[in-house]
Amino acid sequence: MDSDEDLIAAYMEGDEHAFAQLVERHLKTVYSFAFRFVGSQSDAEDIVQESFLKVWKNLKRYSSRSASFKTWLMHIVRNTAIDHLRKRKQIPFSAFEDDEGKSLFEDLSDEAPLAEELFAQAQDSKEVEKAVLKLSPAYREVLLLYYGSDLTFEEVAAILGAPTNTVKSRHRRAVVALRETLHRK
Amino acid sequence: MTSKRDMAFFTKVEPPQHLFEAVLAYIALARRRAARIRLAALGTVMVVSVAALVPSINYAIHEFYASGFYDYLSLFFSDSSVAFGHWQELSLSLAESLPSLAVLLLLGFSIALLWSLRRIAPNVRMAMMPIQSA
What is the pTM of this model? Predict the structure, then answer.
């Protein structure tokens, strides 16, 4: 099977089908991220279309030396999804503020939770899905990229433009917040 | 320990069946729109360069005669032995009398015309491309 870079090179040389193959290969990952990030099918479809359009427009600028194609693609998808939420005025938004505007994270313990254990405890995936949508976008994106897009912490850090340790700590806090949400139900 | 890939919530969501075609159609539409904009710009360049080429040719011809360039050049054909005997002085005179502005204008408009003609064909094809809606 051709690598992403081979397909990009083929498209640059005039093979129109190569770009379609690239879309087909990553469509599921991109759609899954977008759908779980915004929680709506039609919005997710818009984000997917907009993201692939940006990929097509900027393909000449992509360099495999700076990042893998998947990392680059998910960076575009993440930014498009955030722009989409901003347009709909859903950012800034936090489901973790009490009536006085105090962040509930301040009261959360910072123990490293076992995410696998947490997800196994959740009765069904719908329950987790709803809880993830209640997280702030900053936490949601870390969970979706790390667990949902098969990326490493290093790759997630490259997508978010943050140090790996920051991403790891944000992941830990996201899991703590998710556990709080699931327990509060 | 459960692998992160095994967790039910994070298994990938199947995209709607029409989405793949919709993405390609969306890109094709943007491509066609861009081709039409390029076509309009190239068409303008072509019309302007054709319109400017005629006066710039006339201007160049006039300048070639007025500057004496033509007279120096004709020496090579009418009296070649003298011309080749004093080729260094003659070359200098030719360079000095060359109507550079007229030559620049003529070259500029010619290049613009050729460039626009060369780029128009693929854009016409793309601008007329039918889009299959998903």
Answer: 0.70
pLDDT at B133 over 60: no
Counted across chains A and B, CB pairs separated by less than 8 A come out at 73
- Number of domains observed in the structure of chain B: 1
Q: Which domain holds residue B72?
A: 21-127
Q: How confident is the model at residue A185 (pLDDT cuts 50, 70, 90)?
A: low
Q: Is B48 contained in some domain?
A: yes
Compute CA distances B46 → B32, B33, B36, B37, B101, whole Å: 20, 20, 15, 14, 21
| Pairwise CB contact (< 8 Å): A150 & B5 | yes
CA distance linking residue B68 with residue B77, whole number of Å: 15
Q: How far apart (Å, rounded) are the C-alpha atoms in residues A84 and B20?
A: 20
Q: Is residue B41 part of a domain?
A: yes
Q: Please name the residue that has the structure tokens 């998903």.
A: B134
Is residue B80 assigned to a domain? Answer: yes
CA distance A6 to A11: 9
Cα Dmax for chain A: 59
Complex confidence, ipTM = 0.73
> Which of the residues B11, B12, B24 would you substitute to probe the A interface, choosing the one with the greatest number of A C-beta atoms within 10 Å?
B12
Residues 6+ apart with CB under 8 A from A16: none
Query: Shortest Cα distance from A100 to chain B (angstroms)?
Result: 33
Mean pLDDT of B32-52: 94
Q: B23–A49: do the CB atoms touch at under 8 Å?
A: yes
Chain A hits for B2, CB-CB cut-off 8 Å, are 116, 119-120
